Amino acid sequence: MALSSFQLYDAARGLHSRSWVPLLATFSLISAQCDLTAGPGQMSGEVTATSCVEYIAVDMTVGRCALLCHFQVECFVAYTNSDDGVFRCILCEGVEAIDFTAVHENFYLGGRVLLENHGSVPSHRLSLAGGLSVGQVMVVKFVMWSDRTFFLLIQTNGHYAMLVEFRLYSRAIVRNSKLGWWGHEERSKPHFNFVAGQEVEIVYIVRQNDYMIYIDKLPFFTFQHRVTDLESIQYFEFAGSGSGGNLKSFSITS
């Protein structure tokens, strides 16, 4: 029997477990809808997630698993699995890695859109209420208009927890932190083929010991936490020299 959206909500609440012990239930998710434009939304690739629960699902789709995820307070990512012939919705509390080359796989990231279709400005700062936590994902899209573009994660006391700077003139992507003074620069990268006017998408995954950064769906580098108190990181700042750039959107799982 199909569940109405209200029955689904009650069932999901009843099966909710803060300890994230795997639970199984049968759902027929055909009468409710989920807005996949909220937060980072649906992506393609194989996700490695943490603290997951499984639900046997009838007529399984990522969209319907996302709906079930919506009713779980801790659920940030939903994907499907049928390796053994049993269809399942996998609902997870955090993300560890994403393999974007597995284009046949789909997953859903639920969260908040903090900014969308912003105009060209020299700088812009967004508040990250509650700071960051392990397993969170940030998705940033921007267009570079000048020779330098900065991405800053900063603390409330003004320290830079992580800076990612695109330097088109020297074909470098510089990472660093400023905790009273500038630390050691990191520059390793698989390649550099970015040009002024190009739209770029960056995915940050907050992990236990570092940030994992993907640029245009390719794993580019990791950055060891130099500020270990992730909750103290209260802002994301976009800034550029000269004409700056166009920050198109910023989303974060929450």
From TrEMBL:
SMART domains: Gal-bind_lectin (SM00908), GLECT (SM00276). Signal peptide: none annotated. InterPro entries: ConA-like_dom_sf, Galectin-like, Galectin_CRD. GO terms for molecular function: carbohydrate binding. SUPFAM superfamilies: Concanavalin A-like lectins/glucanases (SSF49899). It holds the Pfam family Gal-bind_lectin. Keywords: Lectin. Residues 124-254 form the Galectin domain. This is Galectin. It comes from Elysia crispata (lettuce slug).
